[in-house]
């Protein structure tokens, strides 16, 4: 096949390209330039240039064509503007999930198809299988420590049908060893830790480029407050956010903007002198208030029922009808061990996740995913956490 590989300048995509060449495919390397705002770089570092150079070295070594594709304008509209809007609204988006849905398997895929590609490949640690009915299944990578299927939980059948994940059957040490044996320039390169487009820039520094610094109060709410006592067992009531207000507790500090904080956060509060560490249990961007509680078992940190926005089914076959529920393996963040519980499609059309055990640090705007199949290895669907 003719396969266009998204060469990121890292070892994973480098090995993916190498394996495809070894299998005899016609391989083209394409580097996606997603961000070009030099005002948010630190110490004059520009990570994308280094990464592009590394990708070019790998392509040259493998003897495959290589080009850089500038997607920065589209990326700003689809990912960056969305991200700022979500944070400004007091929600916590996941740009890496959106990057895969909107860029790598949409804009990038379209560009690859224009080059006559049969498929696109990336260095994700996940797998794709196709059954006899032609349904594509998104499976977890065999390396449990590196599995990245969560980040692909918004892909559809058409996107999956064109996707190849050459390292999905490998563990990270094996990938490093293959890169070393193949003399790839990225063999010893460290994995990137930044967002999918701003590299080494810290998230708070990046957000302050557009979100104004605005001082507000940090209010500590005691764990025995009546607001944490639920009396209504209905799904809607159980999923309702705690109705926090500034008069519920004591002002213990100040902050630079409620939109810079998320539920479950500990760092960045700069409030000491408490018997137990303080954690964010809620934020309100309208009053610019950050609510905190002492200890990582504060009741304000935990929820058993989570309301979801409209679900997206990666595999449409297990979709459930209104008024029904089904057991799945549930996950509300990357690398979280799968939780037991069920997905509920209420009679009114709303969807909920109900967990067997309360979940800590649930943040609106993040993606919740559910797994099914043998060993719960398949990512069946996902949805944005509504509140």
Structure overview:
- This protein is α/β, with parallel strands linked by helices and 387 residues long.
- The chain folds into 3 domains: 2-207, HUPs (Rossmann fold); 216-297, no CATH class; 305-384, Elongation Factor Tu (Ef-tu), domain 3 (Beta Barrel).
- Helix content is 23%, strand content 27%.
- The chain starts with a strand and ends with a strand.
- The model is unreliable at 40-44 (pLDDT under 50).
Give a nutshell description of this structure.
This protein is an alpha/beta fold and 387 residues long.
Topology:
Blueprint: E1 2-6, H1 11-22, E2 26-33, H2 47-62, E3 66-70, H3 72-88, H4 95-114, E4 119-121, E5 126-130, E6 136-140, H5 157-161, E7 163-164, H6 172-181, H7 203-207, E8 216-220, H8 235-238, E9 250-255, E10 278-284, E11 289-294, E12 302-308, E13 312-313, E14 324-331, E15 339-345, E16 351-360, E17 367-372, E18 378-384
Parallel strand pairs: 1-2, 1-4, 2-3, 4-7, 8-11
Antiparallel strand pairs: 5-6, 6-18, 8-9, 10-11, 12-16, 13-18, 14-15, 14-17, 15-16, 17-18
Helix pairs in contact: 1-2, 1-6, 3-4
């Amino acid at each position: 096949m003719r396969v266009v590989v998204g060469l990121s300048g890292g070892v994973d995509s480098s090995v993916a390209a190498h394996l495809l060449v070894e299998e005899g495919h016609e391989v083209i390397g394409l580097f996606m330039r997603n961000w070009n705002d030099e005002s948010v770089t630190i110490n004059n570092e520009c990570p994308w240039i280094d990464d592009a150079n590394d990708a070019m070295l790998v392509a040259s070594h493998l003897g495959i064509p290589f080009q850089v594709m500038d997607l920065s304008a589209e990326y700003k509209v689809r990912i960056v503007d969305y991200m700022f809007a979500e944070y400004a609204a007091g929600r916590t988006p996941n740009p890496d999930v959106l990057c895969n849905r909107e860029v790598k398997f949409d804009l990038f895929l379209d560009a690859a198809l224009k080059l006559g590609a049969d498929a696109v490949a990336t260095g994700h640690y996940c797998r794709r299988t196709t059954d006899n009915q032609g349904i594509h299944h998104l499976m977890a990578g065999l390396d449990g420590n590196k599995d990245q299927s969560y980040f692909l939980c918004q892909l559809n059948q058409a996107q999956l049908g064109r996707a190849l994940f050459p390292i999905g059957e490998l563990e990270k040490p094996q990938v490093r060893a293959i890169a070393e044996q193949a003399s790839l320039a990225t063999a010893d390169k460290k994995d990137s830790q930044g967002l999918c487009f701003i590299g080494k820039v810290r998230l708070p520094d990046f957000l302050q480029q557009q979100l104004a610094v605005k001082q507000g109060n940090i209010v500590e709410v005691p764990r025995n407050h009546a607001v944490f006592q639920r009396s209504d067992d209905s799904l809607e009531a159980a999923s309702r956010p705690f109705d926090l207000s500034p008069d519920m507790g004591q002002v213990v500090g100040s902050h630079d903007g409620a939109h810079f904080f998320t539920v479950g956060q500990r760092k960045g509060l700069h409030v000491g002198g408490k018997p137990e560490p303080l954690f964010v249990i809620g934020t309100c961007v309208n009053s610019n208030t950050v609510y905190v509680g002492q200890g990582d078992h504060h009741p304000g940190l935990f929820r058993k029922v989570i309301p979801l926005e409209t679900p997206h089914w990666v595999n449409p076959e297990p979709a459930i009808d209104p008024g029904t529920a089904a057991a799945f393996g549930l996950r509300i963040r990357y690398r979280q061990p799968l939780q037991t519980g069920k997905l509920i499609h209420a009679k009114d059309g709303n969807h909920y996740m109900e967990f067997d055990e309360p979940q800590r640090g649930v943040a609106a705007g993040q993606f919740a995913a559910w797994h099914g199949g043998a060993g719960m290895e398949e990512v069946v669907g996902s949805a944005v956490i509504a509140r």
